[in-house]
Amino acid sequence: MRKSIVKNISVSFLLALGFAFASPAMAQQEPPYWASIDEPEARMRTGPSTEYPTMWIYKRERLPIKILARYKAWRKVEDPDGAQGWMHARLLSATQTAVVLGEKGQAQPLRSNPQADAKVIWRVEPGVVGKITQCENGWCLFDVTGRRGFVDQDMIWGDEPLK
Questions:
Q1: Contact 126, 73 (CB under 8 A)
Q2: In what order do the strands lie in the sheet with 33-37?
Q3: Alpha-carbon dihedral of residues 100, 101, 104, 105, nearest 10 degrees?
Q4: Cβ(158)–Cβ(99) under 8 Å?
Q5: What is this structure's pTM?
């Protein structure tokens, strides 16, 4: 009987440990920091519980999100339009993405090198979301499903230094 209890406690502990580290966005990083939506549908709520009403339903996987605070498994977030609310950490990823800014029809250039006079290799419309890396000196490497180029940091949301 005693072995069974110890075994059940050990299995329960390992399961709890596994759930605690299931998502990189659940890590105990201190806000503010960047994350992205990691599900095809994610709800932003007015408070940190499923008991609170839904404010927004996002159907935009990889959309950048600014994490402002945390409460248990919940994160207070801000979206690119400035809306703030709460999302469960399991809906988020630590992958840093950005969204292209600007007016509809004003495509932004992606360049071959991080320089204003570098060759334009792609153009991206406002609202396009991509993964960003190598952000320095006012430029980020922007990847949209394998099409990569450097974008001016002033033309995206999801990259500015926080804290």
A1: no
A2: 54-58, 42-45, 84-88, 74-78, 64-71, 33-37, 92-93
A3: -70
A4: yes
A5: 0.80
Residue-wise pLDDT tens digits, 57-114: 999 999 999 999 999 999 999 999 999 999 999 999 999 999 999 998 999 999 999 9
pLDDT band at 16 (very low <50, low <70, confident <90, very high): very low
Closest C-alpha among 19, 22, 25 to residue 65: 25
Integer Cα distance of 55 and 45 in angstroms: 5
Residue pLDDT, tens place only, 110-126: 999 999 999 999 999 99
Dist. CA 156–CA 138, nearest whole Å = 11
- Tokens at residue 39, please? 């599900």
The β-bridge partners of 43 are 57
Cβ count within 10 A of residue 150: 22
